Amino acid sequence: MAPWSEARGTTLRLQTTAGTRRFVRIALCTRTGLFGTSFNVREARAEVHDPEKYPTDLGLGRLLVWRWRSQEEAEVLLDSRLRTLQSLGYGVLESDEAARGPWDWLAELVARQLPSSETLRPDTAPQASPDRPGQMLTEILSPLGLRYTELVEGIANVLGLEVGELDDPQANHVAQVDPTQLGALLPFLLTHSDPRLRMIGERWLALPTVAYEVNPRLLHEWLRTEGPLCDALAERLPTEGLALLGTQTLLDLSQHARSARVKLYTKRWIQRLS
Hints:
The protein contains 14 helices and five strands. It is 48% helix and 16% strand.
């Protein structure tokens, strides 16, 4: 398996005078590492001598530069290489450029941060919480230097909302979004350094139905930590703790939660139920 993933690409074809057809696949690739997401351009080639056949495998090909770059630098490199190939006589056979939106890469990034179905099974043993939920997504996006307006536009696009709907959520918007994506993005919003993004996250979490849409396993993990997610949810535990979490989660939090308030409220529930 290649240590990178293809974001989008173009396949080109050159028909030679001898009847041989040469194919080139040029694609923008992404790689996520310790310092965030970096970009490169992959070029793969194939040659077919039978005029009735197409290549079935272009292989992994090669990366055009040894140093992984920013998205802007890689986009320039991709455009330059495409122009060079076309100047050599290659014609575009197919391109998935038009099929992808400008924020598809962010949707894929969010999808990679989603917990596995095994992790979210209600019968699995509790897992240790990260020190700061949303940390991975923050560390990946921060080096890209996206402005507030760009982040809002991108997050709204991922959730299938208009920017105004993301900024001012209403009860009917909760049913429109994918709860797994919302669960991945709420920690990112609520722990962001920009107070405007934190305010958006607070507005969403303040909607009464959001906590019931998010997978209970995520609520469990958030309440095990300390921070804005824990604080916002802890306020609802005295009246909604059993409905939100169930008995097993209440028992675990009464023993392992870092927040004194969460421990207190969950212990009260355990006493009521015992």
